[in-house]
Write a structure and sequence with these properties.
The complex is a heterodimer of chains A (about 170) and B (about 160). By secondary structure, chain A is mostly helical. Helices cover about 55% and strands about 10% of the residues of chain A. Chain B is an alpha+beta fold.
Amino acid sequence: MSEPNRSAAPDRSTLRLHAYADGELSGFARWRFERRVRRSPELQRELAELARIGAWVRDAHAESPGAELWDRIALRLPAADARRAERAAGERSGLAWLAWPGAFASAVVAAALVAQWLTPPTPSRIGVVRWLDSGPRDVMVLEAAPDTTVVWVIGPPGKRPTRGADEGV
Amino acid sequence: MKGSSLRAAIAVCIALAGLAGALVAPGSMRAQSAGSNRVPVNVMIVQTSNKKGEVDPRAQGLHEKLKKQLRYKSMRVIQEQRVDLEMNQVGTVDLPDGRKVRMRPLHKGAKGVLMAVDVQGAVKLDARAPNHHKVVIGAGEYENGNLAVSIEPDYE
């Protein structure tokens, strides 16, 4: 069950067929090969096949971009660069309108900082008293005026604060 | 032309930012100068009473602040003292009934002086008092009236 030994190299008949199709055979060899083709339908079919393949190759070469196409593309590249530069310039000029409003906003911020610097510090809403311990006594804390805070300890009537209860500050 | 106007606007922005920085910088310097160690404190001890009487002229300013908040008919100044303290230094003022008022500045900044105050036997407190802000502390009863201690930071 061994397969017939087929050589990958084309045989002599195929080589002559390709040489004939390419117009490489000389006069006598050409006459002899044409006589063989006339007698062999298989050679005629292969010759027709070769002719069709040649036509495809020629068509494919005709459709591929020629050197002039790349030249045209190269000529357009500087123009594309120029258009890109114009577009970028247009975008910059589109942002230019922000310049003066930005300057105005900066001036407002500067004015706010100046006003904050010039106005005296005011007591925060947290209040002046941050921590307080009156022990068991009630105490009230009053903002009597913007510059005055009252911390008033309310003791039971007749009960005096103990002396020396706390020594540390 | 548009480029030059843009550059001019940017220059204006930079100039304004520099101006703002120059104006803010003295403020921070002012805060730093406020951070010097000395904290003079004006202390006034007064007695309020429901007996008819006068308001001591030295306490007239305090009376104007308190008259709408506290009920009394007379006010006399028992003691007036300026206590020159350094940071974390404890200053002591004696009350007429023998108790003591102790005060210690803990921090001085743009929002004033943070002080720990202890009115012996009455109240302990921490207060952040801006410069010339009076903290008036009721110290309890004294001779048919009440003692009040006014503490006022007074620094440059």
